[in-house]
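explain this:
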Amino acid sequence: MPQISDVLIVGGGAIGTGCARALALAGARVTVFEQAAPGEGWRASAGMLAAQVESEVDDPLFKLALAGRGFFHRNVASLRASTGIDIGLMECGILQLVRREADIERMLERVAWQRQQAHRADWLSALEVAEGWPWLGPSLGAFWAPEDGAVDPERLVAAMRADAVAHGAQFVTDTVMGLTHDDGQLRGVRTSRDVHGAGAVVIAAGAWSGRLADLPRPLSVEPVRGQMIAFPWPAAAAPAIVYGERCYLVKRGNEMLVGATVEHAGFDASVTPEAVADLHSRAMRVFPGLIGQEPVRRWAGLRPAAPDGLPIIGPEPRLPGLWYATAHGRNGILLAGITGELIARGMRGDPMPDDLHPFRPERFWDWS
């Protein structure tokens, strides 16, 4: 049996790497098992930090999303100093256009609800939108979240990984087949090549989390395909992030990323002409300058989602030592850092925040 670690992490994507960094910083001996699988969700992410613009009134994810966004503001400088990697934090705000009269009242309610909790949010008139973003198509106004933004997912994962390694974490390329446990005692994991022992295991395998063998309960995580396309960023337009109807536009480098579909297609990470055409059509309504252009890139990723659309974060009551950090859906990048910090906090024995109650693992398949 290989040398025993304190913590084994199943999954080396954004969430697994965030957990590895936080645990390594806390002094744990961490081993991460990663397997490059086609369609990993984080590799097809736009890196949105849309804590406010994607939250509806009384959204149970709102406080966690804000904490997730706050992680980047707290750590961008330290990550750069530790690793030399700039995670590409954009602090330009996010604009959500409104084109239908029926949506105005909902947006005004969102503004009021967020302001009541002392968060910055505004309703911009059609004239204000046209003056601030003259390259966009017509609208009736917009919800404006000036503190939302984005990061570069590739750079973020690279930085968190480098920081984790600098603090002693190991990353191993191997496929975890399942857990090993007996008489209610967690022993570790079984991979395609060996058995690894540890006192704690974190399942952070994204859309593949529920496919592990010997889990103490069924893990309700399924893949949701998100397809994306890219165009050249217009030279006359300042960097921006704009949401339209079931699409968004974000500047990354010299490109305009357009995403993303929400499709239940199993583990099929292929790109379809129908989805590309639909995204292009929606994006043209936001930015008419895309009319007649062809995408320069097309790709897709599989985002892990639970039936209720909320992440699964916390300990497994039926098997002490087992922790879940999965099912983050569209918010994997946003929540990567804060999820790692919460897992590390829980493993230290510190009380978990009451706001995590909606994300507890036992909300599914509880036979007690």
Summary: The longest helix spans residues 62-83.
